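Page header: ASSEMBLY MODEL / two components / 234 residues total.
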Amino acid sequence: DTEVTQTPKHLVMGMTNKKSLKCEQHMGHRAMYWYKQKAKKPPELMFVYSYEKLSINESVPSRFSPECPNSSLLNLHLHALQPEDSALYLCASSQDERQGRSHTNYGYTFGSGTRLTVV
Amino acid sequence: AQSVTQLDSQVPVFEEAPVELRCNYSSSVSVYLFWYVQYPNQGLQLLLKYLSGSTLVESINGFEAEFNKSQTSFHLRKPSVHISDTAEYFCAVTGYGGSQGNLIFGKGTKLSVKP
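Prediction written out in full:
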């Protein structure tokens, strides 16, 4: 299995709703990522999990809450979002080789994304 | 830290013409380089990558890119484009080693192929 699977593909939610985005991979990758992509822009990194631990949070507002239940799954919990949070949310995974404090990441694979609309 | 510059935000070209999408990077460490393609309303697909070995890498649909360390470039080329190649193309880099080798994207180049 060489894919990253994201569900749902589309999501429309109100500003008072709570929803979750899900991501799954079975490639044995130990690093998983959430990216946000606005129209006509490159993906922007939100969170990085390395060996199931949150290693990077790029100053993302607390209305976005990531969770990594195990090495194959990554969730993004959404609560009280704003219309400007509407975007394509991409999950990715990669090999993460560690040597001491050094990481080398390669083999990045992206999911097809969740198109989120906040109304 | 790494950075990526894609010099052209838009490249219009006629069908069956050759195309080059330019990508330059900067890094204080050795790098891995990638080109991703994004078709309208879809996610990112890996087009090709340079990890090590031959500096010329090829994709299955006729694209190729050459890693040039002295010029810090990884330009993407195709000798004859098709309408179906119309998409956004992102160059990306990750550093070898360091505190966290995360993927850094360029701003993207929109390739528009006209009949």
